[in-house]
Amino acid sequence: MERQGGYEMKDAGAFTTVQIPRQAVATGMAAGPDGGHPHAPAGRKRRWSNPLAAVPLGTKLVTCMLVLLVVGTMGVSVAICQMADNYLLQKTDSQLIRQARLGITNATLLNNDDQDKTAGTGPTDYFLQIRDEKMNVIVNELNTSGANGVISMPRLPANGTLGQVALGKPFTTPAVVKVDAKTTPDSEAMQAAQAPWRVVAMNWTLRNKLNGEEIRGVLFIGLSMSDQIETVHALTSFCLVICVIVVILGGVISALLIQSTLAPLKRIEKTAAKIAAGDLSQRVPSLPENTEVGSLAASLNVMLARIEKSFDEQKQTTEKMKQFVSDASHELRTPLAAIHGYAELYRMQRDYPGALERADESIQHIEDSSARMSDLVADLLSLARLDEGRGITTTLPVDLTGVVRDSADDLHALDMDRKITCGSLQVDAGLPDDGDPGHPALGAVSTLTLEEGPLPEIQVVGDPSRLRQVATNIVGNIHRYTPADSPVQIGMGLVQAAIPPDILATLPSTDASLARFMEAVQVSQNSKVGDGYVVMQFVDHGPGASAAARSRLFERFYTADPSRARQKGGTGLGLAIVQSIIKAHHGLICATETPGGGLTFTVVIPQGSPDEAARAAKEAKASEMAKVKVAKARMAKTKEVRGSHMVREDGLPGGGEGKRTGPDEAGAAGGSAEGQVPGV
């Protein structure tokens, strides 16, 4: 045995067993030297092709929320400002058109109204210009005097031309600002004066009251857009402030919400780190399973429970294997040592007088040790085949009643003075307060009682030889370890239980497992739903076994009294073989204490349907017939090949110089005849 890199290696002939520490499996093989891939080179950090892969999830979510808030609030603000601007522009155009329709008749009224205004924030009054048919300016009816000596007027086409102005359609034109040299306007007044104008050109017609002639021309009326621009600017500033507030509040709230949402994931991460450190008992805190994190936590807890169970089973299997190898070595060493000792004793005493008589005794001891070792090897081989699923066929029809009856007869033949009682097993579910046996009492525990009489006729689907081996081994234990005059009860019966055979096969051979099966029987009696099972009981009244010993009766090489077992010829593998056979039949076997002293072996196996048994019997018969046909074909082929060898070397039939090469001569020559089928 040598150690390489902290791992223990044992070399046993052609096989090598490597024992890896549990923490090495959880940590060293789960991550590499830098926490990355386990096969990554030491001292080399993994580089990600996508830079965003190294950014934490919480940071990504908060950043995405902030980007969405900024884009959303900016989009809403731009839409609101654009809508307000369009609305104010439409309102200004409607006002201009309405004022233009007043025409020249209201020009004086408008002019007087503007002259009465002594206050204002800027040149926001109407501008009116009248031109004749030749586009010559006749009069500017409104004097657009602004605050602090600032005068703002719209830029219109030159005198005598209309330019590209469309009549009846409002248009925007820059302002022409004039400043009185005697005043110094402030920036607010200049900004308002520089605002563009909204102007509309309309045709006008007046009739001269003196001669009745019509006078035609074009009327320009405009309104400064300073108020509209100021309103839009104020609204834009307000929207920007709201956007900033919304983004800040949204970022804080989203950060808190994401942090609280990701907190269970942080706990899962910490739990995973503890598990990676080797503590497989850690579990993720449970959350409501209707949430994603809660569903993930539930799935992880199930996975962790299975992993821990697998590690525990692996540990138990390793311990059992070590104990098995140790026990097997010990059991094999004992007869080998006896053989070696008696052989050496015979060699030392063969020259002394009376050596022949003593030789017979030594040879007898050697034969006994060899027989014990042969039985032990046969049992080990049987267990190995059962563990691999070989050497057993559980699809054949079995007369279980005949198997149990034969085992009772065998026990009676071994112990003539023993009283053996057979009968059928019945389920006693307890009585309720009203005394009706059809309704079990609340909290009552179902039990099995033996009614003396003939064994019930029961057919099951299984392996006949293996089930007979089960009954034989149990009866053999009763014969070996109980007094020859102690009574024995053997019973069997059919029950229904609300437990699947696959679940039943996973239960350990303990009293608790039998109690669970009886609870399933009681549930089936109440619900009238369940699978059919055959229950067999072998009850003895011998010395029995303690609770600790009963829990280990089905372990390999376990015997409550090793010295007594060797005297009786036991190897400690009989009950282990019985348990393997019952597990292969998806059943359960338990050893419980008999009331008054002794052991009670209870065997439970699924009955299987009659159709399944008939189909299995038909398939077995067809398989036997196919084997017979194959054997006949091989025999015919062998005869044909043997006949082909009775020819001369030149290929001509008859005697003369031809040399016969029969199968006997060919075999004597050291080889087999050509074309001969071996083994027939």
TrEMBL record:
Segments passing through the bilayer: 54-80, 234-258
MF terms (GO), sorted A to Z: kinase activity
Domain HAMP: 259-312
Subcellular location: Cell membrane
Domain Histidine kinase intervals: 327-609
Segments of this protein annotated with the region Disordered: 634-680
InterPro entries tied to this protein: HAMP_dom, HATPase_C_sf, HATPase_dom, His_kinase_dom, HisK_dim/P_dom, HisK_dim/P_sf, Sig_transdc_His_kin-like_C, TCS_sensor_his_kinase
Group of enzyme by EC: transferase
Substrates-to-products reaction catalysed: ATP + protein L-histidine = ADP + protein N-phospho-L-histidine
Keyword Transcription among UniProt keywords: no
Superkingdom in the source lineage: Bacteria
Keyword Kinase: yes
A Pfam family annotated for this UniProt entry: HATPase_c
Xref: SMART domains: HAMP (SM00304), HATPase_c (SM00387), HisKA (SM00388)
UniProt entry keywords in alphabetical sequence: Kinase, Membrane, Phosphoprotein, Transferase, Transmembrane, Transmembrane helix, Two-component regulatory system
EC numbers, comma separated: 2.7.13.3
Lineage: Bacteria, Bacillati, Actinomycetota, Actinomycetes, Bifidobacteriales
The protein's name in its UniProt record: histidine kinase
Biased composition annotated in UniProt, kind: Basic and acidic residues: 637-663
